[in-house]
Amino acid sequence: MTPETLATFNQTLGIAGAVACLGLSATGSAFGTGFAATSAMGAWKKCYAQSKPAPFILLGLVGAPITQTLYGMILMFVMFGKASAGLPLLILGVFAGLGIGFSALFQGRAAAAACDAQAETGQGLTNYFAALGIVETVAIFTMVFTLIAVFQIKL
């Protein structure tokens, strides 16, 4: 393999890692918001059936998992700058994307439960958002620690 071919191959692996990070993060956000949205719609239906006002705030719970896509995007752009690192960046991208994506997925599952509880009782919203914030922290930690790891890569 020529040095130019090796450099191109490494660049390709690095870009794949960056894109995988975004893709896996966004996949988690899609699942998470989907779970939460489905629950919100069911909660609104119950409210309408009981002639109760449907709480608009449930949209805040539905949208909570979308931020993980932003964390994946931030990492992707930083990783593009180190794409020539190759395989280490691919590994970082895949595992960071999985960590962030699973955070979004489970945040959505928790938001789904919060939607049901908020619509039924009208109470506890602050507690629900606090719990979602704790799940979000996993994604933030993953992003920060991955940024530290990426900046340690010597080109």
CATH superfamily: lithium bound rotor ring of v- atpase
Q: Tell me the CATH architecture.
A: Up-down Bundle
Please give the radius of gyration in angstroms: 19 Å
Domain count: the total is 1
**Can you tell me the CATH class?**
Mainly Alpha
- In terms of per-residue confidence, which ranges show pLDDT below 50 for 5 or more consecutive residues? none
Secondary-structure element order, as H and E?
HHHHH
> How many individual helices?
5
Describe the structure.
The chain is mainly α and 155 residues long. The chain has a single domain (3-152), classed as Up-down Bundle (Four Helix Bundle (Hemerythrin (Met), subunit A)). The protein is 84% helix and 0% strand. It contains 5 helices and no strands. The protein is elongated. The mean pLDDT is 97.
